[in-house]
Amino acid sequence: MKEQSAAGILETTIEKVKNLVNVSTIIGEPMNLDGGITIIPVSKVTYGFASGGSDFPSKTNKEIFGGGGGAGVTITPVAFLVISDGEVTIKHITAFDNAAERVVNLVPEMFDKVTSVVNKAKKEKAQNEEQKAADAMVSAAMDELTK
Q: Between β-strands 87-92 and 37-56, what pairing exists: parallel, antiparallel or unpaired?
């Protein structure tokens, strides 16, 4: 049997943890709310394994093996993806452990801010171009009337 070796114990432990932790554990199932808002939970999964074993000397031909194994899993919710009106935002819910983690976690927020500024600038440019075209049409119409 595969459980009768240290490698077998570790393999069995890993298989059991795989059954517990899958992609749906990290990126959760979408929750649809009223008003067309969708919320998707995001979690951090941390796990560790340990196993060990030994063959004991025996006077008989039977192999005597002793061993054990274990695993630990921690699942921590860290954020929610919020989808509303075609826009995706991320809302963090964890405390930051260090400065580097703070910087990494600010990247999506900064990206959202830069995107909104760029979109606003594009919208203003389009409105200015529409206004210039309208002004040109009015000016041309005035020129025709004053001839």
A: unpaired
